[in-house]
Specification:
The chain has 19 helices and 20 strands. The chain has about 675 residues and is an alpha/beta fold. Strand 4, helix 2 and strand 5 form a beta-alpha-beta unit. Helix content is about 50%, strand content about 20%.
Length: about 675
């Protein structure tokens, strides 16, 4: 079996100004000193090598460049703080001693980088989490449309259709992969100007599914969502068990998320529900309560949301053999003697308590053995290790062995504290304080001078004559009135234009009504586009009856299915402003449903109303049907002639074959 090569980089700061790092690599057990790197060269080196982990004793050494460094890490590379979570950190030397690693000079940056790499290779440390399990995907046009012209309008509509198609493609892929998301779009020109997805999944889960694209007519950009505060997740579940309280978490996903947490003795420690709770917020809430060793659900199979939380914490997933019924959940809550605020809290608590009841016999056995061994204080830690898969003997041995290095660390490291870094820090802070005091005094002088200037200007303003002020006010008032008049004149001009247009439309409508009443015209039912949504709208608003004539403004993009639907509804004819697509024309021709363009029939249209001369339409329908009839008869005649010709040739071959057989028979006789 081939082992996948693993590369880990250990780094430590050599100097602050300029900032340089010592780098040591660990590659499948082999250590190598890589040398000094500036921050820029270090980022380039990491991006080219793509290591599994970059290990450091404290992320504070990156200072203000920490966020920049995390954004630059390639996909799949983790930044690991090997000394623990903030506030719970231990020294590199004590961790090295605990894991049997020989430590050298603690003031040598390369030695610190070496220890960081070795500890990370053994799964020691916490991964620094800078991004939520959320991703923003933006789909936009790739180029500017430019200015004016019919060709430019066609190009713009084409690009908006391409954006719409790309949004539909991404939406379809996410749905097939069962990845939750929200979508916002901006419609334009029967297409989309932009689309923005908020996908509730890590960037790695989209690898190979959604790819960024730039430089063409459509651009796809992918942005991971940064956390407001950095998170820390243990590299091994065992490390989290030792540092934090172990809990069993039940989760009820949905629009409102329910979360329940109980400890390993069956006591409730947290109960919460929240509407539209993002997965990152769920992760932080659970982390504040403790470290889950089991994540439970009340339905089978487990939802993807619950599986994601379990994977994030490296916890076991509990799924009931069959989904819990409501009466079973209520009975579990009665056993606990607790009331909940809503059904989501009930479902989450029932899932967590069901998981606890499944493990309760094993946990009671662990308690009994620990009482015999005098390790009852370590009950929570041992139970968590047993749940993770260790047998009881191994779990007890690991817990007892951990205590010895800590006791030695307390005794050995207490008196030997290196204060030189603190003295350097104090000198730096004193210099900074002196500089800030000088700057503060200079700023105070500037403020005093500005105050004197303000007082002088205020006195000059107060000395202005009252008549001058009134004149200024009158001028301002006059200017405001002039602007108001200009606005009203513009509105009046626009209103007159609207009235004129409506008057013309009204005259046209009256003429159409007169023509329709006299029976010399046929009203048309107008559709803007030939689509299923538009067809549903016209069915809902006015209905489509057998023998109706439809008028479609833009039939582009329609297919055979919608044409067959129109044929099934028994329409008499279809009139369009532009030629119908070939698939639609084939269906209508086969069903002998006439179709024309508005130019052929001189259609009169005002907004949503349209009419056509009855005589013109009847003549066009009769002419087209007669043309199709003649074409069909010609096609049928050609078909008969072709069949007769084929029969003649076949008959000729048959007679020839019989003659040859008779000739052979005569020769034999």
């Amino acid at each position: 079996m081939r082992v996948r090569p693993i590369l880990i980089l250990g780094i430590d700061v050599i100097s602050e100004n300029p900032k340089k790092f010592a780098v040591v690599s660990w590659f499948n057990g082999r250590l190598e000193r890589k040398g000094e790197f500036t921050l820029y060269r270090l980022i380039r080196f990491i991006q080219s090598k793509r290591p599994e982990m970059v290990a450091v004793d404290s992320v504070t050494e990156l200072g203000e460049d920490l966020r920049k460094f995390l954004r630059a890490l390639p996909s799949g590379t983790k930044l690991v703080q090997v000394t623990g979570r903030p506030g719970e950190q231990r020294s590199l030397q004590s961790l090295a001693k605990e894991h049997g690693i020989r430590a050298g000079d603690r003031f040598d940056p390369y030695e610190e980088a070496r220890l960081s790499a070795l500890l990370a290779s053994r799964g020691v440390g916490y991964e620094v989490l800078a991004f939520e399990d959320e991703v923003i995907i933006k789909v936009t046009r790739g180029r500017s449309h430019g200015k004016g012209g019919w060709s430019q309008d066609r190009y713009r509509k084409r690009v908006h259709n391409l954006v719409r198609d790309k949004v539909r493609e991404i939406e379809d892929r996410l749905r097939r992969a069962e990845i939750p998301f929200d979508l916002e779009t901006e419609e334009r020109d029967y297409g989309l100007a932009r689309g923005e997805f908020r996908v509730y999944a890590a960037r790695e889960e989209l690898a190979g599914l959604i790819r960024p694209a730039r430089g063409g007519d459509v651009e796809v950009r992918i942005y991971p969502v940064e956390r407001a505060e950095l998170g820390f997740a243990p590299l091994k579940g065992e490390e989290a068990i030792r540092e934090r309280r172990s809990i069993i978490v039940g989760i009820d996903p949905g629009i409102t998320v329910g979360i329940a947490a109980i400890d390993l003795n069956g006591r409730i420690v947290a109960l919460h529900s929240q509407r539209n709770m993002p997965i990152g917020e769920v992760f932080r809430f659970i982390s504040e309560v403790g470290h889950p060793v089991i994540v439970a659900t009340d339905v089978s199979p487990a939802p993807g949301f619950v599986e994601k939380i379990a994977r994030s914490f490296k916890a076991n997933l509990f799924v009931p053999r069959e989904s819990l019924r409501v009466q079973d959940k209520n009975e579990l809550l009665r056993d606990l003697g607790i009331t909940v605020e809503d059904d989501h809290q009930r479902d989450a608590l029932a899932a967590a308590y069901k998981a606890y009841l499944r493990l309760k016999p094993k946990l009671e056995h662990v308690d009994a053995r620990l009482r015999e061994a005098g390790l009852t204080k370590k009950s929570d830690e041992v139970k968590a290790l047993v749940i993770q898969g260790y047998n009881l003997g191994e779990a007890m041995q690991r817990v007892t062995l951990r205590e010895r290095p800590r006791e030695e660390e307390e005794h050995e490291e207490g008196p030997s504290v290196d204060v030189r870094p603190y003295h350097r820090k104090i000198r730096e802070l004193k210099g900074r304080i002196e500089l800030l005091e000088r700057e503060n005094e200079e700023l105070r002088g500037i403020i005093r001078e500005q105050r004197r200037t303000i007082e002088r200007l205020e006195r000059r303003i107060a000395d202005y004559d009252e008549e001058v002020r009134r004149k200024v006010l009158r001028e301002r008032e006059l200017e405001a009135k002039v602007k108001r008049i200009e606005v009203l004149e513009k509105q009046l001009k626009e209103a007159k234009a609207v009235i004129e247009r409506l008057s013309r439309d009204l005259v046209q409508v009256k003429r159409m009504n007169v023509v329709e009443i006299r029976g010399s015209a046929i009203p048309l039912k107008v559709m803007e586009v030939l689509s299923w949504r538009e067809l549903e709208r016209i069915e809902r608003d006015i209905g489509i009856r057998r023998g109706d004539v439809l008028f479609v403004v833009n039939p582009a993009g329609a297919g055979k299915a919608i044409a067959e639907e129109l044929v099934g509804k028994g329409i008499r004819a279809l009139i369009t402003e532009k030629p119908v697509p070939e698939p639609v024309a084939e269906v209508l021709r086969e069903a002998h449903v006439p179709f024309f363009t508005s130019e052929e029939l001189d259609v009169k249209r005002v907004d949503e109303f349209a009419v056509v001369e009855r005589e013109t339409l009847e003549r066009a329908i009769d002419g087209l049907l007669e043309k199709w009839r003649l074409e069909d008869e010609k096609r049928e005649a050609e078909k008969v002639l072709r069949l007769l010709e084929e029969y003649r040739l076949e008959r000729k071959k048959e007679l020839k074959r019989k003659a040859e057989e008779e000739a052979r028979a005569e020769r034999k006789t």
